[in-house]
Design a protein that fits this description.
144 residues, alpha+beta, 2,3-Dihydroxybiphenyl 1,2-Dioxygenase, domain 1, eight-stranded mixed sheet, 8 strands, globular
Length: 144
């Protein structure tokens, strides 16, 4: 896999509709995973925990974010997301962001889908996500 940077979009409960719309525009393969499928009982079962549209040459990801307003933008409506299997490289990015004053939203640690994940917001309000694939994690089982 190496390291790629993708766009990750947050929606206030409309991810399934938005991602299906994007698939109708771009084509490609769409996978959608709900909070229930990821074993997260404190969220609406049918809400989208993670979705991924792989089109010709690019990837768009999205999730339902219930702390975002339904209309207009929010501070974290768009995320820059590193998807990687390069542990040391991407952990280094995460640590350098933190060392330079970024706000830790989610510490870099193992998640229910099996990968390491962390999130920060930099001093300019840009949200950065870091997902490091580990053998047997969700991303490995959903590759083309």
């Amino acid at each position: 896999m190496s390291t790629i940077l993708v766009v990750y979009l947050s929606f206030a409960g409309a991810t399934r509709d938005a991602m299906t719309f994007y698939q109708s525009v771009f084509g490609g393969d769409l996978t959608i995973g709900t909070f229930a499928e990821f074993g997260m009982p404190d969220a609406p079962a049918d809400a989208v925990m993670h979705s991924e549209l792989r089109a010709d040459g690019f990837t768009v990801m999205g999730a339902d974010a219930f702390d975002e307003p339904a209309e207009g933008g929010g501070r974290n409506r768009v995320h820059a997301a590193f998807m990687s299997d390069e542990l040391d490289r991407v952990r280094g990015f995460y640590e350098r962001f933190v060392e330079r004053g970024s706000e830790v939203v989610q510490p870099l640690e193992k998640q229910v889908w099996g990968d390491l994940y962390g999130e920060i917001v930099d001093p300019w309000g840009v949200a950065w996500m870091f997902n490091i694939a580990v053998p047997g994690g969700w991303a490995e089982g959903n590759e083309d």
